[in-house]
Amino acid sequence: MNEIPYCDNRYGQLSVTVELQYTADVFLVDQANYNRYQQGANFTYFGGNYSTSPVTITVDGPGRWYLIVDYGGSSAQYSYEWS
């Protein structure tokens, strides 16, 4: 399993920009929802399915945020930037 990138946000707002090669599901989730994702349970997320790039997702709230990029089970490269 690939390591899931995360950011510890100490401030009110966090933005992530992702450059995709292909259509993908891009999710930004907090710690509780990341745990649910890992367990295969329903989880709440910011983001969705994107076919154009770049993708920017902005959330409000401190804590640890995880970036999940899912190309439908296949491996593909992407880059991201926390701002």
Query: Which percent band covers the strand fraction?
Result: over 45%
* Contiguous helical run count: 1
The neighbouring-strand order within the major sheet is 1-6-3-4
Shape: globular
Kindly report how far apart the N and C termini lie. Answer: 26 Å
Mean pLDDT: 86
Q: Any low-confidence stretches, pLDDT <50, length ≥5?
A: none
Q: Radius of gyration from the CA trace? A: 12 Å
Written as H for each helix and E for each strand, in order along the chain, the element string is EEEHEEEE
* Count of distinct strands: 7
> Considering DSSP H and I runs of 4 or more, what fraction of the residues is helical?
under 10%
Largest beta-sheet details:
4 strands, antiparallel
Domain unit count: 1
By secondary-structure content and strand pairing, the structural class works out as: mainly beta
Task: Please provide a written account of the structure.
- This protein is mainly β.
- The chain has one domain.
- The protein is built from one helix and seven strands.
- The longest helix has 8 residues.
- The radius of gyration is 12 Å and the shape is globular.
